[in-house]
Amino acid sequence: MKNMTLRKIADAVGGTLFTEGMPPHISADTVEAAGVVLDSRKVEKGFVFIATRGERVDGHRFIDSVFDAGALGVICEQAPRNPKGAYILVQDSFQALKAVAAYYRKQLDIKVVGITGSVGKTSTKEFVASVLAKGHHVHKTQGNFNNEVGLPLTVLQIRDDCQIAVLEMGISDFGEMHRLSEIARPDVCLITNIGQCHLENLGTRDGILKAKTEIFDFMQPNARICLNGDDDKLATIKEVQGQTPVFFGSGDGSDIYATNYENMGLVGSKAVIHLRGNGEETAFQAEIPLPGEHMLYNALAATAVGVVCGLSTAQIQAGIRDVEPVGGRSNVIRTGRLTLIDDCYNANPVSMKAALDLLSMTNTADAAENHERVRKAAVLGDMFELGADEAALHSEVGAYAAAKDIDVVICVGKLCKNMYDGAKSVGNSSVELHYYTDKEALLAEIDKQICDGDIVLVKASHGMHFEEIIAALSLH
Predict the structure, then answer these.
(1) What is the DSSP code string of 119-183?
(2) Which of 202-206, 395-399, 450-454 has the highest mean pLDDT?
(3) With DSSP H G I counted as helix, E B as strand and the rest as coil, what are the percentages for the chain, rounded to 5?
(4) Most exposed of 100, 261, 300, 317 (fewest Cβ within 10 Å)?
(5) Listed residue (163, 221, 155, 138) closest to 4, CA to CA
(6) 76-89 pLDDT per residue, tens
(7) What are the φ and ψ backbone dihedral angles of 206, each rounded to 5 degrees?
């Protein structure tokens, strides 16, 4: 890791370096760390381990073992009694993590694409990374490592062969994006949309806009900005630090837009994507392999990033075609008896409605073969962090579900009682409605509610742990 000696790391985190236990043949001023991790189990020879205190585990207990595994040094809040190697003493290990990641980012001669927004960050990240990989060596955020712990760890995983890093940046309160931007220092800022997430802390969509646009606070000079032009809040941004945004959207009012959209159900969609710039316009046929109309926006966003990063239309086209699904995000699973739409990683009103649109528009011919009856069933769970309007927003989603071309709606969770009541209020007798107080109650009766041949959407906020429902249904 470039310039990541123990001495420079200590300076970066504002800590005190102690080298008494360090082997004499290793220099704190010349030997560079091979990696930096929080998990002691991931320590390899030459790594730096950051000992943190969590709710269940205190990393300081593993300092001896990481030195036995070959650690170069340790960052810690409490000095080890008999140190087996060098350590850097700090007041707050989590702050040290952010500081060392920010320092390391400055040593890297790469481009960083920062992605944020209320809905679709992870799927958009996959599209962007797939496109950029057609012309560059790409490092991308893994899993949900997008917060003030995950983002620094993602930055610290970047190695010398990387040319572009695609970083997902997630927040729930004001100031968080400011701090993430200071670490990432993006060359490209992409915002997918301004929806109804984290209203508990951010209050309104205007509050969300304010918090998300903190991504611009530490963007690089001459950074490029890509925004969803169909989003009424983002469309108000005309200039940032002298830079005019590149807008993408469904209509020809954007710089990058789509025509001839064709929804092909669970196998994806097609569209012609148009690129406008320098007084010229080009277009290409995009094959989008993931289901849902909202995936078109992910493809448009990836096209915008590909354009500002200098990729050809052929490379962008290939990157969109080759994108792969991510577990828990519109991932289609065929079990033989059932067709599952696994979208259980997270949920808010906007993404709930998009998922219900996908289920509603799904052709029952896409389901498993050899079943006389094929139904569309939605298993929906609580949406968290919606603030004072949580009951009304759940009710709104329930009414939306009951008005769609869906046969069965199953609402699960305390907040979902409002969703169930909202669905009932529609009075659509063709929709079968069920309510369960919790996941366990549904699992006890899952075989009664889900039948052979069903196409089943499973969606809820991550804290509902609906992956257990996916696991149970996957056995069918």
Answers:
(1) S-HHHHHHHHHHHHTTTS-EEE--TT--STTHHHHHHHT--TT-SEEEEE---SSTTHHHHHHHH
(2) 395-399
(3) 35, 25, 40
(4) 261
(5) 155
(6) 999 998 888 999 99
(7) -65, -35
Q: What is the pTM of this model?
A: 0.81
Q: How far apart are CA 364 and CA 382, in angstroms?
A: 27
Q: Is the dihedral of CA 306, 325, 123, 168 positive or negative?
A: negative
- Euclidean distance between the first and final Cα of the chain, in Å? 47
Q: Identify whether the C-beta of residue 179 lies closer than 8 Å to the C-beta of residue 152.
A: no
H or E segment and range at residue 407: none
* pLDDT at residue 247 greater than cutoff 60: yes
Lookup result for tokens 């797939």: 130
How crowded is the C-beta side of 283, counted as CA atoms within 13 Å? 10
Q: What is the pLDDT of residues 429-440, one digit of tens each?
A: 999 999 999 999
- Residue burial 441-471, b: 16+ Cβ < 10 Å; e: rest: ebbeebeebbbbbbbbbbbbbeebebbebbe
Q: Are 440 and 428 in contact (CB under 8 A)?
A: no
Beta bridge partners of 111: 164
Contact 199, 383 (CB under 8 A): no
Distance of alpha carbon 259 from alpha carbon 268, whole angstroms: 16
Residue 285 tokens read as 């046929």
